[in-house]
Amino acid sequence: MSSEPIHPRIKTVRKHITGRGAASGWSKTRATLRGLGLIVGLVGLSAWGLTYGRVGHPAWARLRQFRYAHRGLHDTVTPENSLAAFRRAVAAGYGAELDVHLTRDGRLAVIHDADLARMTGRSATVEDSTSAELASLTLAGTDQTIPLLDDVLPLFESTTALIVEIKPVGGNHAELTAATMSCLDRFNLDYCVESFDPRVLAWLKRHRPEVVRGQLTQDFLRPGEDAGLAWILRFALTHLLGNVIARPDFVAIRFEDRGLGAHTLCCSGWGMQGMYWTIQSQAEQDVAERDDHLIIFEGYVPAGDWPKN
Description:
- The chain has helices spanning 8-17, 22-51, 60-63, 83-91, 117-120, 131-135, 149-152, 173-184, 198-207, 231-238, 243-246, 261-269, 282-290; strands at 68-70, 95-102, 108-110, 162-166, 191-195, 213-217, 250-254, 273-279, 294-297.
- It has 13 helices and nine strands.
- The protein folds into two domains: 8-46; 57-297, TIM Barrel, CATH 3.20.20.190.
- Mean pLDDT is 89; it is low at 6-19 and 37-46.
- It is of the alpha/beta class and 309 residues long.
- Strands 1-2-4-5-6-7-8-9 form an eight-stranded parallel barrel, surrounded by five helices.
């Protein structure tokens, strides 16, 4: 008596139950897992190669002694980046962060914006103005004027410390960085240099490797955060891909963007020093210092001891 034909689906089930075909299936799975592992490994190596920086610079022993007043210790009557604001910072025992632009006649102006309108009411840029023209302007309706870097630096000789942000405009990164370093060399200072532009750090790496250098960053991929930059540049700056040429000593990130993976990799993974900007309350300070990050602060008076032992 002939047997009924076996349905193809039953054959398939029987094949798997009895183990026929299982070996080839497992081989394919293992091959897939190996492929995924290789991809993960390559991504990890790429992340390491692109983002790692320098650790253990001896200057940190001094630089870590201070909290840093953002653009000096300014308030409603003392304008930012003014000599008065820097004097207040030093008198209170704080370091300070300041910004440097290159004037048309090759001087170094301490002011945050390239556009002069916000702080002086003048419709012009720093880079298109001479130092004499800038000296005739007052800051935020006060009697304070835009200082030159060599006016500010004597305040910090043998006192506290400085974070100098270099702010290139129109491709002048090399000229601006060289001029800034030449000015800094004339004074007995504890300082580090930072910039959003990795080319500044690359210049320092090549010409002044002994200087502590830091990469500024934020989440440029957030809606409304394009800063007029192309998407690919915003991606690279957000994910610290410029570290491949800059090899910074520290990463200074906007406080609300502190969860970015590249920042975490640099600071928690590679052990680089971190900084947060701009800390605006005691609660934010407490978070920052629990993370062992230096702070650039404004709008309040920090409490508590620093550095922590």
